[in-house]
Design goal:
Blueprint lengths: L1 H15 L15 E2 L7 E8 L2 E3 L2 E4 L4 E8 L5 E6 L1 H13 L10 E4 L4 E7 L4 E6 L11 E6 L1
Parallel strand pairs: 2-5, 4-10
Antiparallel strand pairs: 1-8, 2-3, 5-8, 6-7, 6-9, 9-10
């Protein structure tokens, strides 16, 4: 009987996963989650209606950054760090499920007056972006750029 219960639980496990897990990333084009116990340069990013400040950031390959992200706007906003292609694909999924919650280490969704931190190590050179994938926000210009040299 115990074996049958265990098999039933294993069979049901994929069904219990949230819709967000269907597009969870195991590797990230923009680098990897950083180690909060190691030194990092702090960059503050403010999100407001259809804008980020700063909208452009330069980092060195191998550098670890502690992003302190604050929503200073009147609406919910997101900061999702990825390639443009990844964010465009994710944006299409967000149109189907606009209240999707993010639990990935490269992104955060914040209510007005809230803040969060993301520690990220940029292991690859290139141009990446952070954008708000709440429907209408990216299209409204809520995109920032990170150049890793």
């Amino acid at each position: 009987m115990t074996t049958l219960l265990a098999l039933a639980a294993l069979a049901a496990w994929p069904l219990a996963a949230s819709s967000h897990d269907q597009h969870a990333h195991h590797s990230f084009a923009a680098g990897e989650p950083g180690n909060p116990k190691k030194p990092a340069r702090t960059i503050q990013v403010e999100m407001s209606e259809m804008a980020y400040a700063p909208s452009q950031i330069q980092v060195k390959r191998g550098e670890q950054i502690r992003f302190v992200i604050r929503n200073v706007g009147k609406e919910e906003h997101e900061f999702l760090l990825a390639t443009t292609d990844e964010n465009l694909k994710h944006a299409e999924e967000m149109k189907k499920n606009p209240q999707m919650e993010h639990d990935e280490p490269n992104g955060v969704r914040l209510a007005p007056a809230k803040s969060a931190e993301i520690v990220w190590k940029f292991t690859k050179a290139g141009t990446f972006e952070y954008s708000c994938l709440i429907p209408g926000h990216r299209d409204g210009g809520m995109i920032g750029q990170i150049v890793v040299k």
